[in-house]
Design a protein that fits this description.
This protein has 270 residues and is an alpha+beta fold. It is built from eight helices and 13 strands. The strands form two sheets. It has an eight-stranded antiparallel beta sheet, with helices on one face. The chain has a five-stranded antiparallel beta sheet with strand order 1-10-11-12-13.
């Protein structure tokens, strides 16, 4: 990572450069997850106006965060965060994770202070701290109606993450420890821009805070604290635009243009 981009990235996170350590990593993870939202408005916007159909370049990613309060989806958030950690001197691996399709998700594995951790800023999840991999029992993160369970590694060193919503298993993935190159994900990234792809037919924005979260998923807004989740119905596309601008700071004109033409909105966790 070019030094100027690294400085810009850290500036957007509000974090000073420190030598690699668990405390420094925890600060970086918390800053990334709370300051850079999971959102696909930028994906829709750049696809329409720039013809983007591959990984968003780092300068464009940082410019979008700074100018429009964008963030990104799985590949963008996690690959660029991986690159930042590597640039800061961390022992880090980019790894594939299986959902219904092999390697359809990517995660980051970081080894620091003799322990390995799972870092995932691209799952729209409240992972405000590195998740330990050397587990003897389930590791649980709870926020409102959602409960995330990281299982101990299996015999092949894989880590299973499960998302339970209202007590029902809703989604999850299996993270694999083999290091991968970003080129290995080229096909799945290109596929994510297909006309029938999930994030070309849905709206999802999630912002995390130290003690709460706010999610807009299609025509619902969900506000969660550690104890509960409250769901609000969004009545129209115009109301959706105003909700995104109010709660995420993305300009209304960009949101309106990005969602124009979306019809049958998909459940991104289906």
């Amino acid at each position: 990572m070019e030094p100027a981009l690294l400085r810009q990235y850290l500036g957007l996170l509000g974090v000073s450069r420190r030598a690699p350590s668990f405390d420094a990593l925890r600060e970086l993870v918390a800053a990334h997850v709370t300051r850079i939202p999971f959102e696909n408005i930028s994906k829709l916007h750049y696809r329409r106006h720039l013809g983007l159909n591959d990984l968003m370049p780092l300068p464009l990613y940082l410019d979008g965060i700074e100018r429009y309060h964008f963030g990104g989806t799985c590949y963008t958030n996690n690959f660029h965060f991986y690159s930042l950690l590597a640039g800061l001197g961390y022992e880090v691996k980019l790894c594939g994770a299986d959902m219904s399709t092999p390697d359809v998700h990517m995660v980051i594995l970081v080894r620091v202070d003799g322990q390995e951790y799972l870092v995932d800023g691209g799952y729209a999840a409240p992972f405000l701290a590195p998740l330990p991999r050397g587990l003897q029992a389930d590791y649980v993160v709870t926020l409102g109606r959602d409960r995330y369970v990281l299982k101990p590694q299996d015999g092949n060193g894989r880590s299973r993450l499960e998302l339970y919503r209202d007590g029902v298993l809703k989604h999850g993935y299996v993270a694999k420890p083999s290091p991968r190159k970003i080129e290995d994900f080229h096909g799945v990234i290109v596929d994510s821009f297909r006309p029938d792809a999930t994030f070309m037919n849905a709206v999802l924005l999630v912002r995390f805070y130290p003690d709460r979260s706010l999610m807009i998923h299609n025509l619902t807004r969900v506000e969660s604290s550690w104890a509960e989740s409250v769901t609000h119905t969004i009545g129209s596309p115009a109301e959706l635009v105003s909700n995104v601008e109010k709660h995420f700071g993305i300009p209304a004109a960009i949101v309106s243009d990005a969602i124009a033409g979306l019809r049958d909105l998909k459940d991104v966790w289906a």
